[in-house]
Structure formats: C-alpha cells, structure tokens
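Exercise: predict the structure of this protein bound to FE2/S2 (inorganic) cluster.
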Amino acid sequence: MAYTAEAPAIAAGDDPMVPRIGRVRRRVRELSDVWTLTVEMEDGRPLAFAPGQFNMLTAFGVGEAAISISGDRDRADSGLIHTIRAVGPVSGALTRLGPGDVIGVRGPFGVGWPVDAAKGSDVVIVAGGLGLAPLRPLIYAVLASRKDYGRFALLFGARTPADILFRREIEQWRRRLDVEIQVTVDTSGEDWYGNVGVVTALVPQASFDPQNTIAYVCGPEVMMRFGAAALRDAGVPDTAMYLSMERNMKCGVGLCGHCQLGTAFVCRDGPVFRNDVLRPLMAVKEL
Ligand SMILES: Cc1cc2nc3c(=O)[nH]c(=O)nc-3n(C[C@H](O)[C@H](O)[C@H](O)COP(=O)(O)OP(=O)(O)OC[C@H]3O[C@@H](n4cnc5c(N)ncnc54)[C@H](O)[C@@H]3O)c2cc1C
Ligand code: FES
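Solution:
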C-alpha cells in the first residue's frame, strides 16, 4: 500500500505506544486559533522525521491527538515543531502549553511526502488553510536542494487575509526568483490586493509541465478533491499527485482500526497517499 520507504522508523528500543517526554521551549501564536510549539525531548535525543509524518501528542490529563510535524527535517536538533489549531479538548490543551510545560510525544508515524520522487521534475504544491503546516517540511526540503528540481509553484488558499498561515515566511519565499508563489483568499477585506477565490483556481495559472510534475496537496478534504481534479484537468496524472488524509487516530501504528480508510489504515499506510492509490480507497464504504 505504501509507495515509498522515505520514512524514518521509531528508534530501536522505543515502544511506539509509550510517549517520550518533551518540554515546550517556545510557543508562537500564528493565527487567532493556531499556535506553533517548539518541543525539546527530555532525553536530549532529537526526533528524526520525514516531511509529512506526524506525532501523537499528549496533553497529560486531557488526551492525545495526531499532529503533523511542521519544522525542518534538517534542523531536527533545534527542536520538534508542531502547528496546532485549537478545535477541541486535546488541541485546545496543547495550544495552552507554555515554555517549560511537559508534553508527551509518540512517533514519528506514517508515510510522508516523497521528496526525492520529484527530483528532476517540476513541483506544484496546493495548500489550503492549516494544510500548509504538514507541507512546510517538504517546502524546506525542496528549497534546501532547489537545483535538483524543475520549476516550483506554491499555491496557497486561506479563508481571509487574517487566516494566512506563516505569512512572514511566505513573504520571504516570495522574494526568491526560483519559486512561484500564489496566495488567494475566499473573502477579502479592503486592504487585500491579491487573488480572491478558491485555491484550485490558481492551478491553471501556474507554470509547470504537467507531464513532468509531481504535485502535493493538503487541506480540507473537499479542497483536496477539487485540487486533484484541477491538477488532472491541467494534465497531471493521478500517479504524480500526493494527498495527505486525516482520519480519527488512536494508536497511530496500525493496531486499533480507528483510522481505517477503505482497506488502508491512514496512520500506517498514509497519511500521504498517491492519488491513484487513494481514489479506490475513497470509493470503498468504510467498514
Ligand atoms: C495525520 C494527521 C495529521 C494532523 N495534523 C494536524 C496538525 O498539524 N495540526 C492540527 O491542528 N491538527 C492536525 N490534525 C487534526 C487533529 O488530530 C484533530 O483536530 C484532533 O481531533 C483534535 O483533537 P481535539 O480533542 O482537540 O478535538 P476533537 O474533540 O477531536 O474535535 C473537536 C471538534 O472539532 C472538529 N475537528 C476535529 N478536527 C478538525 C480539523 N482538523 N479541522 C476542523 N475541525 C476539526 C471535530 O469534528 C469536533 O467537532 C491531524 C490529524 C491527522 C489524522
Ligand atoms: S490509529 Fe489505530 S490503526 Fe490507525
């Protein structure tokens, strides 16, 4: 089911069901309801990960939630970075943790974005809302060896200008001459002079060779469906598109069945799926 082995496994000797203890070093507010936490592991061992992988984070006394890693894999020793939207009890408690607070970390889990698969090809990233967070490690990886890739387009959609995640960083990336960045919002205010409309409308405007492109899509499920359709209309085959799925997670290691998607487990076989693999899974009635 998995298409690549680009995923570091849990370190030998670690029980994947037992959280390692970390401490929050830094907490940054990104948006009204989104925070980024930098976590240091108490045992001092950095946590190697592949772009697109996730951890199960524990807010002790409250519970555990799957959260993607949003930092730079090449800087894993400077802390483990997660960007979290407070939507419920666990994510709310995680986002209230401050410097020095204890946090539980299990992972990294899952199959991430195939970074090397795109070498020699154009790269198109289509991100919606918080979907930019799991894609950020991939962006860092492509930028770190930019010459290995063809053209690079990042298409990002947010609900309003106030919902643009990682805004300052997007501005920095935009200054590079070797990246095409397009940002759109669903609803603009008076001070917005950029694109207005859904992110999928940006696909036909981007410069890439559809026959030699690898596309990465992450965002709300409906946005990913339309994003994949727009890429297909532009000529990108399903075998060259990767989407990251979210399902309810409990164990994170393919044991409990909570994250079942058709015949696959999102935690073990995903969360990143190639679209020709994903489409039949989405068609299977969940068991
Ligand atoms: C592989 C994977 C990676 C993930 N990465 C991240 C990440 O990087 N950052 C992050 O913030 N979340 C991420 N999530 C989502 C996160 O795990 C869930 O939001 C989690 O359920 C939050 O737990 P909770 O107890 O706070 O809320 P819950 O009690 O589970 O949910 C509270 C309410 O919010 C709704 N809800 C749950 N999740 C979402 C969502 N994602 N968007 C909108 N509404 C939602 C629920 O339907 C419910 O109504 C990821 C999930 C998966 C499977
Ligand atoms: S979360 Fe238990 S099988 Fe995926």
